[in-house]
Amino acid sequence: MSVEDYADDLSATVHYALETTRAVAVCPFHSEVTIRVGDDAAESHAFERAKRIVRSDGTNWETQDLREEIARQISKAADGECPLCARH
């Protein structure tokens, strides 16, 4: 998928930015589990990348909205390893 596929959905835009900067990863065995890598530089880079993604109407996302969505997604992600894999 291209960046244009994510640009009009805030949650998808942030997830795209976090995943492409490797701030988070999706478990290869449990696609519903997002894992926080714990790389502060990658998380900062994801924020900058998300800020630069332009919606189809030519506008950018509001900075505060991006910060809140990044914080929400990072806090929801598992720390360091997939909890479903860790159980086995």
Can you give keywords for this protein?
88 residues, mainly alpha, Arc Repressor Mutant, subunit A, 3-stranded mixed sheet, 4 helices, elongated
Q: How many helices? A: 4
- Which radius of gyration do the C-alpha atoms yield? 13 Å
Question: What number of structural domains do the residues give?
Answer: 1
Structure classification: mainly alpha
- Largest sheet geometry: 3 strands, mixed
Order of helices and strands: HEEHHEH
Strand content: 5-15%
> Class, according to the CATH hierarchy?
Mainly Alpha
Any low-confidence stretches, pLDDT <50, length ≥5?
A: none
* CATH fold-level topology: Arc Repressor Mutant, subunit A
Q: How much helix, percentage-wise, in residues?
A: 40-55%
* Count of DSSP strands: 3
Strand order of the largest sheet: 1-2-3
Q: What is the level-2 CATH architecture name? A: Orthogonal Bundle
How far apart the termini lie comes to 32 Å
Which whole number gives the mean pLDDT?
Answer: 93
Task: Give your account of this protein's structure.
The chain is mainly alpha-helical and 88 residues long. It has one domain: Arc Repressor Mutant, subunit A, CATH 1.10.10. Helices cover 48% and strands 9% of the residues. It contains four helices and three strands, in the order H-E-E-H-H-E-H. The protein has helices at residues 10-20, 40-52, 63-76, 83-86; strands at 24-26, 34-36, 78-79. Strand 1 (24-26) and strand 2 (34-36) form a beta hairpin. The model has no long low-confidence stretch (mean pLDDT 93).
